[in-house]
Amino acid sequence: MIIKPGATTLADWNAIYEGADVALDAGAWDAIDASAAAVARIVARGAPVYGINTGFGKLASVRIADDELSTLQRNIVLSHAAGTGAPSPVPVVRLMMALKLASFGMGASGVRRETVAMLEAMLVRGLVPVVPSQGSVGASGDLAPLAHMAAAMIGVGEIELEGRRVPAAEALRQAGLAPLDLGPKEGLALLNGTQFSTANALAGLFRAETIFRSALVTGALSTEAAKGSDAPFDARIHALRGHAGQRDVGDALRRLMAGSAIRASHASGDSRVQDPYCLRCQPQVMGAALDLLRQAGATLGIEANGVSDNPLIFADSDEALSGGNFHAEPVAFAADMIALALCEIGSISERRIAMLVDPALSGLPAFLTPRPGLNSGFMIPQVTAAALVSENKQRAYPASVDSIPTSANQEDHVSMAAHGARRLLDMADNVSAVIAIEWLAACQGIDFHAPLKSSDALQAAHMHLRAAVPALEDDRHFHPDMVAATALVRTGSLVASVPAGLPGIV
């Protein structure tokens, strides 16, 4: 994957997150060289410039001698590598490194060619720094996580290489690389920026897209299982309101159910006037989630292509301008939107599960078992779904509304983007399990309508599950069924099984 600074797409970032090889576009090197040369001229002038020949944060007034500039940059990396918690997932760290590479490629950070080449070489050779997941408040950059990345580049800390955690200096040696000696501003440039928050938010977005599409399929299957109406998906309804996501979801649900023999069997003479909201309002709820995810994607696409360290170097005038691009408020808002969407996708899915197991609402056998009483069927899987949804509700509280002053009140308002984004993968895991339970329940419900079949698209999803999980005749160990179905949801296999175009984000 060629990273084009300022012009890399969400699809490209997704490919990198999924493991694609990375290289910086060759056209970026001239801007990188010009920026580094500007820093050299700034140093030669001798005037104090923040982050180049001064201390950092509250210590910005302390002037640093020219012969100590390299030590200054090394010290900021070592002192700021103060994260804690479990290591961040390798795909997230790779994406963070690629985002930093793209940022440097814009030629506004003042780092030398060899520093950028080191970051690129580590990505190419599979060297992924071990980065603790906690410690950033999402302002002044993701300082602690990025400092752990930078520390690995100078031979300090640990690197994951071929599935093993290896001391950084040894991992570099095995890969034929020498630890980096940092030049003026380079330590600060490496650890200043929003790349950790942005990588986690993008990872959450990519997972959310798969979950969203999966939930469209399981929602249509549940509608079929309950012999619900497709009238609420009529395009005329959604055109009158005008929301793009709502229109797209209504269109998708109509396509998914088109040609269903189950639907045709009760198209006339159905005594139920209106379905429960969990069926009838899918376009409104899922459409709103889609609009939210698309808005978050637009924000993160801009952020991923921007420069967010400080100060910024303008080579045409040899200026170093201090600002606040490191403040991750846009990422925090985007992460909160993704969290809200994930929470609601799981919530309405759980309501459909609850509807299916209730014979008064679904018209199906109690708890979807042929012999209720002797068997409990889907009684407790619905409870599990409810537990996961409740957990996500707690996690969905907006992180962006919080702030706590740091650095002796110099950094007095922070975004909390890092943990706002970091929670998303755990939330996505929860929703994936809820969607998997709904898939199991909906297919079980459809089985009761045999020999009638659903549409071609939904029949494909039904058969895909049945290839891994047989219908539930009598109670059995339920956990393996849930594990198998959840794996198919998480990998996108459920979505891939459906021969119908589904709206998306990336």
TrEMBL record:
Q: Which GO terms describe its biological process?
A: L-histidine catabolic process to glutamate and formamide; L-histidine catabolic process to glutamate and formate
Its annotated compartments are: Cytoplasm
Keyword Lyase attached: yes
Per the record, the pathway is: Amino-acid degradation; L-histidine degradation into L-glutamate; N-formimidoyl-L-glutamate from L-histidine: step 1/3
Covalent link location (5-imidazolinone (Ala-Gly)):
A139-G141
UniProt PTM comment = Contains an active site 4-methylidene-imidazol-5-one (MIO), which is formed autocatalytically by cyclization and dehydration of residues Ala-Ser-Gly.
For this record, an example GO cellular component is:
cytoplasm
Q: Which PROSITE patterns match?
A: PAL_HISTIDASE (PS00488)
Alphabetically list the UniProt keywords.
Cytoplasm, Histidine metabolism, Lyase
Q: What is its EC number?
A: 4.3.1.3
Which InterPro entries would you find in this protein's record?
Aromatic_Lyase, Fumarase/histidase_N, HutH, L-Aspartase-like, Phe/His_NH3-lyase_AS
| Superkingdom of the organism of origin | Bacteria
Catalysed conversion reaction: L-histidine = trans-urocanate + NH4(+)
Where 2,3-didehydroalanine (Ser) occurs, residue numbers? S140
GO molecular function term, any single one: histidine ammonia-lyase activity
Family per UniProt? Belongs to the PAL/histidase family.
Protein name, per record: Histidine ammonia-lyase
